[in-house]
Every structure is written in C-alpha cells, then in structure tokens.
Amino acid sequence: MLDWIVLLAILTIASVTDLQTREVSDWLCYASVFAGLGLAALTGAYTDNWAPIVSRLMGCLAFFALGASLFYTRQWGGGDVGMLAVMGSFIGIQLSLDGIWLAFLINLLLCGALYSMAWLAWLAVHHYHDFRKQFIVSMNLFSWVRYASAAGIMMTLVLYVLMPYWPMLFIALLFPALFYLLPFSHAVQLSCLQYYAKPDRLTLGDWIGEDIKVQGKTIVGRDSTGLSAKEIAHLQALGKQGKVDKVLVRTGIPFIPSFLIAFVVTLWHGSLLTIFLQAVI
Predict the structure, then answer these.
(1) Number of domains forming the structure of the chain
(2) Residue 275: inside a domain
(3) What is the pLDDT of residue 182?
(4) Looking at the structure, do residues 146 and 200 belong to the same domain, yes or no?
(5) What phi, psi does 151 have (nearest 5°)?
(6) Which residue, 93, 112, 135, sits at the end of a domain?
(7) Checking phi first, is residue 242 left (phi over 0); if not, alpha (psi -120 to 50) or beta?
(8) Staple partner for 79: which of 5, 24, 54, 153, CB 3.0–4.6 Å?
(9) Are the CB atoms for 14 and 257 separated by under 8 Å?
(10) For 95, which DSSP code?
(11) pLDDT of residue 275
C-alpha cells in the first residue's frame, strides 16, 4: 500500500509539471526509480525475500527499453521514457499474464489513446481557423482514407450478413473514425503543434520539424531525437552571424497525465481489456 501511495504522489507531481512546463525533470525520474527500488530492497531485507527487488529491476529495465524504442522513433519525449522506467521500478514484472504490469501497459495504451485524441480535439477547437485550413490540405493528401473507410464498412457489413454478431456493427462504425484519424492528427500536428523559434529561444531536447540547412549543408536533420547543448550553441552562433534566422520546432502533448489515469484505472479495475472481452463474448 505504501508503494502505491508513493507512486501516486510521484505521478501527480509529474503530471502537474508536465501540464505546466511540458517537461519532467530528470532528477524526479532518477529519484523515483531509486525510491521504487529502495522500497523493494527494504522489504526484501525485512522479509528475507529478494524476489520483489529482482522483479522491479527487471521491470525498470524492460519498461525503459520499451520507452527508449518509442523515444528513438520520435513518439515520446525523454520525460515519458523516464516515467515509464519509474513505473517499472514500482510495479515490476511478474511471470504471469494476469500481473499488474501487463494490466497497466494495456490500460496505458487504451487510456493514452483516448487521452491523446481528447487533447488533439481540444487543440483543433482552440486553433479552429488554422486547423480547418490544414485539415482540408491533409484530407487531400490522404484522400485514400475515404475509399479505405468505405471498403472497411462494406466488408464488415457483408461479414455481419454471413455471421450476424452485433460487435460487427460496432467495428463498422469504427472504420471511419480510425481512417479519418490519420488526416486529423496530421492537421493538428502541422497547425497546432509546431512553431518557429529564434536560435536564442531554443531549449535542450527540442524536436526539429524540418532540416536546418546553411548554404545547402544540413546542420541538424529533422530526424534528430532532440537538440543537444552543442547543437543549440552552434545554431545560436549561426544565428548571430545571420545564417540561421528561425528554426521550426515540433512540440507534443503533455502525456504524463495518461500514466496517472492508467495507473488509477489499473488499481481500480485491473485491465480494461477484460471489460471489452466480457462485453463482446
């Protein structure tokens, strides 16, 4: 119980910080990992059972590896990776499919998707005029989604006629939402989640939205996983020389609150997947 109270406090602090600054400090992640492993070590020393510390070490490493893979594909920021490692250091990994670690990951996937869509929808409404213009462009760019959506609906309805099963109708309704999500998210990204910044306004870890070139030579590529201190110093020097006027910076949504939501749901109910399976079976 004490472990869950500490973890809830950490997630609450990290969520508030992420919402306010779009960052989670490294020291909070490091201290939290040590807290999770330290509590397990104290429990092991008191009970002479070292299985919890082994489980949490495995969880920390496995969750960090999962987060790192998302970081290097530019899906997550560094704070998200650190906080996922924190989760692993508290909940560990159990050698069973009904362990809390799997329930949390499933809930993080589902809650994270719903949370992200809600946040993107809010951004689209908040920046409606810019979003509307970009959405028209994105729909033309991804014009194939109309045909793919129609084909998916027709295929599902045919299957429903052959095998009458009500979840088929639910799946048919999902096709338009899933297919139109691609141009929608693309439009939000381009209209709401990027901006131009002067070189002296760049910060450590900023994602670049386009290649930064000087005299045809790429200084920093858009596939960078975040600006380093050395790259920022170089760009600021080029800015003073008048060679780099502005840099397109990509931002993301504050995702840490979805960790808190997913963990609370896990403690309250377990895996949300079981609710869905119980409803359709």
Answers:
(1) 3
(2) no
(3) 87
(4) no
(5) -65, -40
(6) 93
(7) left
(8) 24
(9) no
(10) S
(11) 72
Distance CA 130, CA 87 (A): 37
Q: Does the residue 261 lie in any domain? A: no
Q: According to the model, what pLDDT value does residue 72 have? A: 85
Domain membership flag for residue 268? no
> What are the angstrom distances between the C-alpha of 62 and each of 10, 85, 221?
20, 8, 29
| Residues 65 and 30 grouped into a single domain | yes
Q: Is 244 in contact with 215 (CB distance < 8 Å)?
A: no
For 182-229, the pLDDT digits (tens) are: 899 999 999 999 999 998 888 888 888 888 888 888 888 888 888 888
Banded pLDDT at 115 (limits 50, 70, 90): very high
Mean pLDDT of the chain: 87
Where do the H-state alpha helices sit in the chain?
A: 2-21, 26-47, 51-72, 78-91, 100-126, 128-141, 144-162, 167-192, 229-240, 256-269, 272-280
What pTM was computed for the model? 0.85
Domain that residue 167 falls in: 122-192
Is the residue at 58 inside a domain? yes
The last residue of one of the domains, among 78, 93, 108, is: 93
Q: What is the 3-state composition of the chain as percent helix, strand, coil, each rounded to the nearest 5?
A: 70, 5, 20
Q: Position of tokens 């329930």?
A: 103
